[in-house]
């Protein structure tokens, strides 16, 4: 089964925008189409066709497409055109390994500077994620999940780290949607982030970093199940080895970060 087939199992409809809109509104609708499956991974897109589907002029549409390219959801190939990004196993592996390294660093940066504002935002976004589950909407739940994980990057005070996270957040949301469809779910399990939030507000940074790694390990196991659905049997062992290598590399990256920085008291 191909990823496009999984996303196509319950595609979202692209809604026509009936009035002149700002770039952000067009970008939101484009993003919904990609995350929801109306625009398939690898599908070619053109300004002419999208302008007709959305009912908008090419100027703001071009700006919106440029924004989604920056987010990693669209890819422009010289002399070929623009396509929706493909979601490959290598992409997923790299996102996993990069994400755990980034998130571990973000928590080390903020740990001794966590305040009431950080707690309020984190708790509110967790509650928003739980509330979104009742909508059974891939776009809403994945956006809420990404927003929850964005909290530490937004609050840690590390501008470059936050910018790096923003560059992969769109693709992370797309992967989450593909994964949910592959496993016939509309969102994460209700208790999936309970320990994450609890430890993020605790006094034990080692336990928090261990939870990030454990979350990574669960992701690798889910990736193996995902591989079983999307990759022929003769390729699975190589994919499992790649996923295991990503986890091993991530542990090394986290160890290097921990040894390079003084441990908070």
How would you describe the overall organization of this protein?
This protein is mainly alpha-helical. The chain has 2 domains: 3-84, Winged helix-like DNA-binding domain superfamily/Winged helix DNA-binding domain (Arc Repressor Mutant, subunit A), CATH 1.10.10.10; 89-260, GntR ligand-binding domain-like (Four Helix Bundle (Hemerythrin (Met), subunit A)), CATH 1.20.120.530. Helices cover 69% and strands 4% of the residues. The chain has 11 helices and 3 strands; from the N terminus they run ααβααββααααααα. It has helices at 3-7, 23-36, 47-54, 58-70, 89-110, 116-132, 138-155, 159-182, 194-200, 205-230, 233-260; strands spanning 44-45, 74-77, 81-84. Strands 1-3-2 form a 3-stranded antiparallel sheet. A hairpin with a 3-residue loop joins β2 and β3 (81-84). α5 crosses α8 (159-182). The N and C termini lie far apart (50 Å).
Strand content: under 5%
How many strands in all? 3
Number of domains: 2
State mean pLDDT (0 to 100 scale): 80
Structural descriptors:
Four Helix Bundle (Hemerythrin (Met), subunit A), 3 strands, 265 residues, Arc Repressor Mutant, subunit A, 2 domains, three-stranded antiparallel β-sheet, 11 helices, mainly alpha
